């Protein structure tokens, strides 16, 4: 991969990391335990629990995405970015365009899903 392309992916990944870090840290309030406050009725408490669950799910996905983006940045730093972690073959540029944090090629990702 040429340095210009790698630099472009690096900037995208850094952008992803900063956005995700902000999102994950900013979600603290939404994932706080629902207060069993008598001031809110039973239904709204269930709503509150449900939206807390959704916020937790989102937070988990964002944390995983953050981890992937950081891994990819590490790969850039160590010069292995764009190389599949499993088969060591190249990851298609089109795949990285869609998913800059991909660390395995399409073939290996398909196998991992099975
Ligand atoms: Zn592979």
Describe the structure.
The protein is mainly alpha-helical and 114 residues long. It has a domain at 3-80. The protein is 66% helix and 0% strand. The chain has 4 helices and no strands. The two termini are 29 Å apart. The mean pLDDT is 88.
Features of the shown structure:
mainly alpha; 0% strand; 114 residues; 66% helix; elongated; binds zinc ion; 4 helices
Task: Describe how the helices and strands are arranged.
Blueprint: H1 3-26, H2 42-78, H3 93-98, H4 106-113
Q: What low-confidence regions span 5 or more consecutive residues with pLDDT below 50?
A: none
Helical content stands at: 55-70%
Radius of gyration: 19 Å
**How far apart, in Å, are the first and last alpha carbons?**
29 Å
Multimeric state: single chain
User: What is the percentage of strand-forming residues?
Assistant: under 5%
Q: Rough shape? A: elongated
Question: How many beta-strand elements?
Answer: 0
Cofactors, ions and other ligands in the entry: zinc ion
Helix-strand sequence: HHHH
Largest sheet: none
Number of helices: 4
On the 0 to 100 scale, the average pLDDT is 88
- Structural class of the helices, strands and pairings? mainly alpha
Write a short abstract of this structure.
By secondary structure, the chain is mainly alpha-helical. 66% of the residues lie in helices and 0% in strands.
């Amino acid at each position: 991969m040429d340095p210009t392309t790698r630099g472009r992916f690096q900037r995208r990944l850094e952008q992803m990391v900063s956005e995700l870090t902000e999102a994950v840290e900013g979600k603290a309030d939404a994932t706080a335990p629902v207060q069993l406050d008598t001031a809110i009725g039973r239904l709204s408490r269930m709503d509150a629990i449900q939206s807390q669950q959704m916020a937790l799910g989102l937070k988990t996905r964002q944390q995983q995405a953050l981890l992937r983006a950081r891994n990819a940045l590490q790969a850039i730093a160590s010069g292995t970015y764009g190389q599949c972690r499993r088969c060591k073959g190249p990851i298609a540029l089109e795949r990285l365009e869609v998913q800059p944090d991909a660390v395995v090629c399409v073939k290996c990702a398909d196998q991992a899903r099975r």
